Amino acid sequence: MHVHDTYFVVAHFHYVMVGGTIMAYLAAALLVAEDQRPDVPGGLGQVRGARDLRRFNLTFFPQFVVGYMGMPRRYHMYPEDGRC
After folding, report:
1. In sequence order, what are the residues at sequence separation of 6 or more whose Cβ sits closer than 8 angstroms to the Cβ of residue 46?
2. Are 6 and 67 in contact (CB under 8 A)?
3. DSSP 37
């Protein structure tokens, strides 16, 4: 299947950039916060990390699906009949 110039490319970009940078930043911030305040339970960070990962996938995974379906990117306006 040819997915070049579809929303699959957009989804892949967001998974690499957001997943690689923002998630790492949040994990590092949690690690620093736990070092500074040892009274904060570590399980809370795991719950927040799982919640953030779930939200991340709910936000960007549908772009993979519509990309596989052939939805192009960079269109000013889509046809009114819904066909791409």
Report:
1. none
2. yes
3. -
pLDDT tens per residue across span 48-59: 888 988 999 999
Strand ranges in the chain using DSSP code E only, listed in sequence order: none
With b for 16 or more beta-carbon neighbours within 10 A and e for fewer, the 9-22 pattern comes to: ebbeebbeeeeeee
Q: What is the pLDDT of residues 17-48, one digit of tens each?
A: 988 898 888 888 888 877 777 776 667 777 88
Q: Give the integer Cα–Cα distance in Å for 69 and 41.
A: 44
3-state secondary structure of 6: strand
How would you class 52 by CB atoms within 10 Å of its CB: exposed for 0-12, middle for 13-18, buried for 19 or more? middle
CB contact at 8 A, 64 and 11: yes
